[in-house]
Write the structure tokens for this entry.
Amino acid sequence: MALPESIGQFEHVVLAAVLALDEAAYGVTIHAKVEEFIAPRTVSLGAVYATLDRLEDKGLVRSWLSDPTPERGGRSKRHYRLEPHGERALRDTTLAAKRICDNLERIWGEDVWTAGPRWKPVRQS
């Protein structure tokens, strides 16, 4: 079995947004979900589209055009869904992030996630 595709942090967020949106995953909704996930940071719609293109080139998502809709002036929407390799890459990256978070809790304490914006870790010797 081939190793799953390696993905970066922003690709991880975009894949998670596609998964969360299911049938409603198209550019504008994906952008909104990504911003929800990374708040209070923001990201441009263009960065989301570029990442979706890259994920499609890697074979991690698939896109297709919907039928034209009157509310869009007769234009189609490009919908996205995860491919099996995309689901595997998302799962593997999420599990790695969870292991990192678990270790940080062990080192810094469970309150690391609720300490607020002024929290600064103390380097342990």
Q: What stands out?
A: The chain has a mean pLDDT of 88.
